[in-house]
Backbone:
């Protein structure tokens, strides 16, 4: 079965750029979607189809996908960006989520 | 604005069947552009897809849960439902329903999500 690998945690200084990776075999050939989940809340879509932002998501959030790694980039990180982030793909008639990355804003 | 709301028992006994319903408001469940999905999250852990259904009744299930899962849709009530049989403590989780965007099939993303409901499996 297909696996997505995310770092358990990423730290970023306030105002700096955070990059959260999602690794998978030839993930560049798939559409990757990203979710933000704050404590006690449901996940919220922040990026779909690799690099598209839903309405209401700040331009500070961007995505890329190539080769074996997809990346969620959060520019000018704010305290409110502190959350868990999950990547998701579709593979062989199965929805696969990454294990999640906890973003800490210092 | 589309909203989803999960409902059902918060406590289920081991070996019994977990049953949840998701009510969709602000839009039609019969839209050809979407599937409708269930995702769960054990306490302190990550997200796990359970399965998704199209308004016509076509279903896709997580292979690891397929033998125990049934997802159905009631277009007259704008609802879809989840049944998970033979539950154990490992099925204790927050269960979410979400709109699953059709992207040449159920390849799409989940948006929006319901608020989630905690189901505990315990005697």
Residues:
């Amino acid at each position: 079965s297909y696996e997505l690998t995310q770092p358990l945690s990423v730290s970023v200084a306030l105002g700096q750029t955070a990059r959260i990776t999602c690794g998978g075999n030839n993930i560049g050939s798939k559409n990757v979607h990203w979710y933000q989940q704050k404590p006690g809340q449901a996940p919220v879509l922040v990026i779909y189809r690799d690099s598209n932002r839903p309405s209401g998501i700040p331009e500070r959030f961007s995505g890329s996908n190539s080769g074996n790694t997809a990346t969620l980039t959060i520019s000018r990180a704010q305290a409110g960006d502190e959350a868990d982030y999950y990547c998701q793909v579709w593979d062989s008639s199965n929805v696969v989520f990454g294990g999640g990355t906890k973003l800490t804003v210092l | 604005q589309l909203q989803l709301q999960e409902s059902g028992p918060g406590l289920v006994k081991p070996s019994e069947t977990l049953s949840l319903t998701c009510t969709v408001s602000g839009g039609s469940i019969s839209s050809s552009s979407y599937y409708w999905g269930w995702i769960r999250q054990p306490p302190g852990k990550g997200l796990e897809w359970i399965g998704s259904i199209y308004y016509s009744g076509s279903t896709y299930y997580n292979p690891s849960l397929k033998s125990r899962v049934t997802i159905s849709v009631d277009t007259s009530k704008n609802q879809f439902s989840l049944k998970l049989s033979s539950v154990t403590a490992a099925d204790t989780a927050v269960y979410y329903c979400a709109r699953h965007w059709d992207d040449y099939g159920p390849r799409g993303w989940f948006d929006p999500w319901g608020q989630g409901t905690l189901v505990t499996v315990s005697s």
